[in-house]
């Protein structure tokens, strides 16, 4: 037995055990779930140093599990986020029902993701992909009746994605007669060029659904926002990365043979750009914090896809760096919004306000999160964004630079809205009872905050495994040092200097604020204001978040009116109506059925020549 | 032990049951169980023998091609095992489910049905095949109307009406064959039919396609099925989906591969399979009654099986058999759990199922489990058979059926998951009281375990499927062993 076998065995068996224990000895359940996730993490770290391979046969296929530097990168992400979410869930979910169901499916999702990254053959890849899909579906519909249509939409899109993967797999099997990854990679070039492109596009579609590229993103906002917060952190942080994992494999391992492939890459890069830009705009209008983060998550994945699709060493490095960082900061953001929800019972930005003094650590987590998202030094986001810009300019994708720049700038708007409306602004009497969340929820948030800080100062620590992964993807090398970033034309940025400058700025600002704060401060609520002769009504909503970006919304709204979601809904509804009509083929009348039989007989006799090639 | 037991013992039991009813009601219930248990034992014992080398049993001493023979080859071994094991599970379920009188008639008809189905699978004689078909059909008509309500009677009448078309065409086809080749032995016919004029052969083929197509639920001949499935008692729905249709499809394929094995015929089956599947799945989408929905899903699954048979290569036939196995298991599980869900909610409507997941957690769990399994999600057994079907289709160089099968899978997922959602997430409070009897739970539990087991070790079944597929496709060996 080696680490990978342990990881999969423990996670899946642990899922089942957790479910059973929930029904027998409730208090043990959380401990077991945490233990399972922790041992998963332990064995993932173990597996980093070994290069293992497990081969066994199921049905007629060789199932091969093994780790590569590329899969290690993702496995660590899954393990860490999986562990932290389960830690976080302990208190967050404590009051909820059906916890056996929740933990079982959460562990199934984690196990499914492990399986995906460790699969070295397409059968087990698809197997785990489907396991991940249905278990995450069951988590999306966990909460309530309202979640049901949302969950179904998620499942339908996932199924479309999974089945396009399956079609590609089936095609590969028909073409090469083999489903082992190493074999396929060798023989992929022998497939006809058209089929190569078709297979690659099908695979990209399949993986693209999970990473919510436009126009396949419509499931994401609702599903992210309605699923329970601990799972959302994992959903957006790790599960969506499985799509990225696959896209990376397809782009660099499969499809490097065909010349036409550059067009696919360009289209993909632009889809990524559009995703980044539009999702950011949508995010700005959201009034629900989780939905805002959901759109933000879609947009961030757009950057990653750009990075992968552009395909220069630096851009791939940037994309993989963003994968790790996005996993961390999106989990942080969802966790801190979850913390707000935990204490206030809502994530509506129009009603929650001024929590900074009550939940300082959640505030710090969110602050770190948004600084990372926006790519401002000194946190990790800066290095990632810098690399992305640099690679785009260097590879002459000037329009994409503009798109990315516009999206990043617009991102400031929603990020500011998020932190301002929840934590800053005036305090409301309604939330005076709120206090900081329990320690077990804080620990994951603080660990991740520390991580993004470290990743910002010493990006090389993260770039090190990334460069190994890139070696695996195809000999892409790029220059980096622990805390120094290089570009092609020899300039370099020393993060130490950056951190010093930023530190100094913060120190001065901090001193300034403190001195200013020494004066007597009066905290006011929203209603405690002086207006020109008007007294606010008792039930008037005066939190700052209301109509936060009204003029901007007005300016940009027409452009966003045409929604793909509506088109999909219309297609779905029309199909259902057509099906409803069709079922009256079965009239329920025996005479009609008898008539069908006779008609069918006559048709067969009449068209015998056409059907069977013989004239009757 | 010999394959004759499969026919003789349930037939004997069927006649014994009314007599036993005079003695004790319990005895009536127990006899079929014992019979099926014994038959399962026989089938498991004979299985390796039949798979290894076909056993041909001569009835009453007349040598083929004059007498009636039983041909117990790999595929017959597989199907009799499937029928007896599923039959046993259905009996287990019926034990507490069928509480309405006349109980002895139910079990008598059930035994007749088992006799007929195993007979269809075993017989090497085409007229004998017809007789077993009639036994099965008549038992099936009566079981459809078992509840003796208005809907049941109506459904049974429709079934009877369409079923009589099937019998007529089937008999006509046999008559034409006999008039031309002067033999009723299947192997002998297979040899001699080559000399029959091509137009006659074609006409016979069309008659077979319709006669057996009706029983195999091929579109547009399957109008009887939704009513019969949904109005019959739930275990009978499982009997139809798990046993009767399987036997019918087997006989259709056996006849086609023996007598009419041509590219055009297979192609026709492929197209009909696709149409059957698509129309059935689409119709299932908006059904308001759960058992009707299951009926359409069952038709759709048979469409899938017919597609795989229509490809006609060895891997695809193997995949089709595997799918038949899985469908028998999973659809039985669904009918079982739906039976108690309907019973507990007191209504056949899907909308009445809201919140039953809280009242009846175990039964609902079984339904949800079955739903995930039948969509073809891993790690359940349905995943492998669907995968094999897709791979075999692609291997034959076709992509359109692959896409259509996957589209219909999505439709399937939508309507099944909607029901699952209703069970668990539409209403929160638990209200009720009545419990699902233990025997029913055991029956469902057995199926669940097997579905999972096969999901993790598909080789458990798959290894037996290869000789079965070879048996069905290898006409020469059938003729060789069938005629000695």
Walk me through the structure.
The complex is a heterodimer of chains A (616) and B (484). By secondary structure, chain A is mostly helical. Among the domains of chain A are: 269 residues, no CATH class; 34 residues, no CATH class. Chain A contains 23 helices and five strands. In chain A, the strands form two sheets. Chain A has a three-stranded antiparallel beta sheet. A two-stranded antiparallel sheet of chain A has the order 1-2. The mean pLDDT of chain A is 85. Chain B is mainly α and 484 residues long. Chain B has one domain. Chain B has 20 helices and two strands. Chain B has a two-stranded antiparallel ribbon with strand order 1-2. The longest helix of chain B is centred in the middle third of the chain and has 32 residues. The two termini of chain B are 21 Å apart.
Tags for this entry?
heterodimer; A: 616 residues; mainly alpha; three-stranded antiparallel β-sheet; two-stranded antiparallel sheet; 23 helices; 3% strand; B: 484 residues; 79% helix; globular
Short overview:
Chain A is mainly alpha-helical and 616 residues long. Helices cover 72% and strands 3% of the residues of chain A.
Alpha-beta classification of chain A? mainly alpha
Global mean pLDDT of chain A: 85
Shape of chain A: globular
H/E topology pattern of chain A: HHEEHHHHHHHHHHHHHHHHEEEHHHHH
State the share of residues found in helices of chain A, binned by percent: over 70%
Q: What coarse outline of chain B follows from CA principal-axis ratios?
A: globular
Question: What is the N-to-C order of secondary-structure elements of chain B (H for helix, E for strand)?
Answer: HHEEHHHHHHHHHHHHHHHHHH
- Average predicted local confidence, pLDDT of chain B: 89
The residue fraction in helices of chain B comes out at over 70%
Biggest sheet character of chain B: 2 strands, antiparallel
Using CB atoms under 8 Å apart, which protein chain pair has the greatest interface? A-B, 59 and 65 residues
Beta percentage of chain A is under 5%
The span between the termini of chain B is: 21 Å
């Amino acid at each position: 037995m080696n680490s990978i076998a342990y990881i999969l065995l423990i996670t899946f068996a642990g899922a089942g055990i957790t479910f059973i224990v929930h029904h027998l000895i409730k208090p043990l359940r959380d401990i077991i779930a945490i233990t399972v996730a922790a041992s998963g993490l332990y064995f993932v770290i173990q597996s980093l140093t070994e290069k293992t391979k497990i081969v066994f046969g199921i049905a007629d296929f060789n199932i091969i599990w093994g780790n590569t530097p590329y899969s290690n990168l993702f496995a660590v992400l899954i393990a860490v986020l999986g562990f932290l979410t389960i830690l976080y869930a302990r208190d967050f979910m404590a009051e909820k029902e059906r916890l056996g169901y929740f933990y079982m499916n959460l562990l199934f999702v984690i196990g499914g993701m492990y399986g995906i990254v460790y699969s070295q053959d397409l059968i087990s890849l698809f197997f785990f992909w489907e396991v991940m899909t249905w278990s995450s579906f069951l988590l999306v519909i966990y909460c309530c009746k309202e979640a049901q249509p949302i969950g179904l939409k998620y499942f339908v899109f996932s199924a479309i994605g999974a089945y396009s993967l399956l079609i590609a797999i089936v095609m590969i099997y028909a073409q090469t007669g083999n489903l082992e990854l190493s074999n396929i990679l060798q023989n992929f070039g022998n497939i006809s060029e058209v089929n190569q492109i078709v297979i690659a596009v099908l695979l990209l579609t399949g993986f693209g659904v999970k990473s919510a590229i436009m126009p396949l993103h419509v499931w994401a906002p609702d599903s992210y926002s309605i699923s329970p917060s601990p799972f959302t952190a994992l959903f957006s942080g790790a599960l969506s990365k499985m799509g990225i994992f696959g896209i990376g494999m397809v782009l660099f391992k499969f499809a490097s043979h065909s010349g036409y492939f550059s067009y696919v890459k360009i289209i993909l890069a632009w889809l990524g750009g559009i995703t980044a830009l539009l999702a950011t705009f949508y995010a700005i209008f959201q009034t629900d914090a989780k939905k805002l983060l959901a759109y933000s998550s879609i947009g961030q994945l757009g950057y990653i896809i750009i990075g992968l699709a552009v395909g220069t060493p630096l851009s791939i490095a940037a994309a993989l760096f963003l994968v790790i960082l996005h996993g961390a900061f999106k989990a942080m953001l969802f966790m801190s919004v979850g913390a707000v929800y935990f204490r206030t019972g809502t994530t509506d930005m129009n009603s929650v306000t001024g929590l900074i003094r009550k939940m300082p650590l959640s505030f710090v987590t969110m602050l770190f999160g948004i600084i990372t998202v926006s790519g401002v030094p000194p946190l990790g986001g800066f290095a990632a964004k810098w690399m992305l810009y640099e690679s785009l300019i260097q590879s002459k994708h000037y329009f994409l630079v503009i798109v990315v720049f516009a999206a990043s700038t617009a991102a400031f708007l929603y990020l500011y809205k998020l932190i301002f409306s929840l934590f800053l602004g005036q305090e409301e009497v309604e939330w005076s009872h709120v206090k900081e969340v329990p320690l077990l929820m804080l620990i994951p948030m603080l660990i991740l905050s520390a991580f993004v800080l470290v990743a910002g100062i010493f990006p090389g620590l993260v770039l090190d495994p990334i460069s190994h992964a890139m070696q695996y993807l195809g000999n892409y090398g790029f220059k980096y040092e622990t805390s120094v970033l290089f570009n092609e034309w020899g300039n370099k940025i020393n993060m130490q200097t950056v951190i010093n400058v930023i530190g100094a700025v913060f120190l001065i600002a901090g001193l300034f604020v403190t001195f200013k704060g020494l004066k007597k401060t009066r905290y006011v609520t929203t209603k405690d204001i002086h207006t020109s002769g008007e007294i606010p009504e008792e039930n008037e909503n005066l939190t700052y978040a209301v109509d936060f970006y009204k003029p901007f919304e007005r300016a940009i709204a027409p452009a966003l009116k045409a929604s793909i979601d509506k088109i999909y809904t219309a297609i779905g509804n029309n199909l259902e109506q057509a099906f409803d009509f069709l079922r009256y083929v079965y009239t329920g009348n025996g005479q009609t059925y008898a008539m069908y039989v006779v008609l069918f007989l006559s048709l067969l006799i009449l068209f015998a020549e056409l059907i069977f090639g013989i004239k009757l | 032990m010999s394959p004759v037991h499969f026919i003789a013992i349930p037939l004997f039991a069927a006649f014994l049951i009314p007599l036993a009813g005079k003695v004790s009601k319990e005895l009536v219930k127990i006899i079929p169980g014992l019979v099926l248990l014994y038959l399962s034992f026989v089938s498991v014992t004979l299985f390796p023998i039949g798979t290894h080398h076909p056993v041909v049993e001569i009835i009453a001493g007349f040598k083929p091609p004059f007498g009636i023979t039983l041909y117990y080859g790999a595929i017959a071994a597989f199907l009799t095992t499937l029928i007896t094991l599923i039959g046993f599970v259905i009996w287990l379920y019926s034990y507490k489910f069928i509480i309405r009188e006349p109980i002895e008639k139910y079990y008598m008809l059930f035994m007749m049905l088992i006799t007929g189905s195993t007979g269809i699978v075993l017989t090497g004689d085409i007229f004998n095949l017809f007789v077993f078909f009639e036994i099965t059909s008549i038992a099936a008509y009566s079981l459809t109307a078992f509840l003796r309500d208005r809907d049941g009677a109506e459904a049974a009448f429709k079934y009877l009406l369409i079923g009589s078309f099937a019998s007529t065409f089937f008999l006509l086809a046999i008559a034409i064959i006999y008039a031309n080749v002067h033999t009723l032995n299947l192997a002998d016919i297979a040899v001699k039919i080559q000399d029959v004029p091509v137009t006659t052969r074609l006409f016979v083929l069309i008659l077979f396609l319709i006669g057996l197509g009706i029983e195999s639920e091929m579109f547009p001949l399957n109008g009887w099925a939704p009513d019969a499935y949904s109005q019959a008692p739930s275990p009978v729905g499982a009997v139809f989906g798990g046993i009767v249709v399987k036997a019918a499809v087997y006989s259709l394929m056996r006849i086609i591969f023996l007598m009419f094995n041509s590219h055009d015929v297979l192609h026709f089956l492929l197209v009909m399979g696709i149409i059957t599947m698509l129309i059935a799945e689409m119709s299932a989408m908006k059904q308001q009654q759960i058992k009707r929905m299951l009926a359409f899903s069952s038709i759709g699954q048979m469409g899938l099986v017919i597609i795989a048979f229509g490809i006609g290569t060895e891997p695809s036939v193997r995949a089709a058999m595997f799918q038949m196995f899985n469908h028998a298991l999973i659809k039985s599980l669904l009918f079982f759990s739906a039976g108690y869900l309907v019973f507990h909610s007191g209504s056949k409507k899907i909308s009445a199922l809201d919140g039953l997941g809280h009242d009846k957690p175990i039964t609902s769990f079984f339904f949800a489990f079955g739903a995930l399994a039948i969509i073809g999600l891993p790690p359940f057994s349905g995943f492998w058979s669907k995968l094999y079907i897709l791979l075999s289709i692609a291997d034959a160089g076709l992509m359109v059926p692959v896409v259509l099968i996957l589209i219909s899978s999505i439709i399937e997922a939508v309507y099944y998951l909607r029901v699952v959602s209703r069970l668990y997430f539409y209403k929160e409070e638990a209200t009720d009281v009545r419990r699902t009897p233990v025997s029913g739970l055991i029956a469902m539990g057995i199926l669940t375990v097997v579905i999972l087991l096969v999901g993790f070790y598909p080789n458990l079944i798959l290894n037996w499927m290869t000789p079965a597929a070879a048996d069905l496709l290898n006409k020469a060996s059938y003729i060789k062993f069938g005629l000695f």
